[in-house]
Amino acid sequence: MRWKNTLFLAMAMLMLWSSSGIFAAGPPAGEEYSRSTGGALRVRLAPAAPHSPPLIPKNLADLRSMTGDDFLCVQRDRFLVASDLGPGEYEYLVDGVLDFCRNALSRVYFDNVKSPAKTVNIFIFRDYTSYEHGIRRFLGMEPITPYGHYGHSQKYIVVNYDTGPGTMVHELTHALMSDDFPEAPIWLAEGMASLYEHCRAEGDVLRGDDNWRLPELKAALEGGYLTPLQTLFAMTPQTFNSVKVSLNYAQTRYFCKYMEELGLLPIVYKDFRARPFLDPTGGKFVAKAFGKPLESVEAAWRNWISFQYWKE
């Protein structure tokens, strides 16, 4: 299928934003966000103005009324999707990427969602101009990244499709995990979302591929300034998203990729999900899955990193 090949290009267009010259910001008050990030690109947007939580439609008729004739709207399971993409691109993204990735991730990881599951809205905009205008029009806010974000409390995803389908898969992972394992710490949530922002299909399974986050990770390894895993696992969302942000994403992504390659990521995820009260950081579950202390796991992971390569 065409989309399975193009998923490799998932976020390649993010590189176009590296010279945007936009400055630092935090998310608006009153909402929690998971944000796609350009990693080493360190792109930032101007601060968004405070706003009231958006009123997100929870049925197809209301969504169509909200978006008007310029947007195609469909329902897939509990996901309501609105987009101003052309019909061909829309079908590829919704019936291809969205359906496959949702099913694949749910089959391997996110099988604990309580029924009835909450409705999630996905707004997919064809380019940055449409994205910026649509976020203002539908959500009453300014963009908090050029790529997309997931609003936890209101259950919605916004995507700038110019950055590729990987943005949607990143935010979709957040939406699925938030209902399946709401206690998951930031390192696991962003590690898994970042892992599948650039992936390939193997049969009915997704596999994370190397991406642009690797060079920064290797530079930190060689420079001796990687954050110890125990410290990384204990980070709050505030710390994770304020100190060495792009490196935090790179470390968590590649630790999740390391576990995935060894067949341990589903084991760690589900064991952790079942008993998070035993260790809210997840370190004990990682050590248990590997059968050795976390320090030994980290040493082996650091050695593994040195043998990973990526070409743009």
- Mind telling me the C-alpha Rg? 19 Å
Can you list the strand order of the major beta sheet?
1-5-6-4-3-2
Q: How many H/I helices? A: 13
Largest sheet: 6 strands, mixed
Mean pLDDT: 84
What is the overall silhouette?
globular
Secondary-structure element pattern, one letter each: HEHEEHEHEEHHEEHHHHHHH
Oligomer: single chain
Structural class, from secondary structure content? Answer: alpha/beta
Q: Total strand count, please?
A: 8
Residue runs with pLDDT of under 50 for 5 or more positions? 1-31, 38-51
- Into which percentage range does the β-strand content fall? 5-15%
- Work out the helicity level: 40-55%
Termini Cα gap: 23 Å
Description:
45% of the residues lie in helices and 12% in strands. The strands form two sheets. The chain has a six-stranded mixed β-sheet with strand order 1-5-6-4-3-2, with helices on both faces. The relative contact order is 0.14. Residues 1-31 and 38-51 have low confidence and may be disordered. It has helices at residues 2-6, 60-67, 87-108, 128-139, 165-180, 186-195, 214-223, 229-233, 237-240, 245-261, 265-274, 283-290, 294-305; strands at 33-35, 72-76, 79-83, 120-125, 148-151, 156-160, 199-202, 205-208. With 312 residues, the protein is α/β, with parallel strands linked by helices. The protein has 13 helices and eight strands.
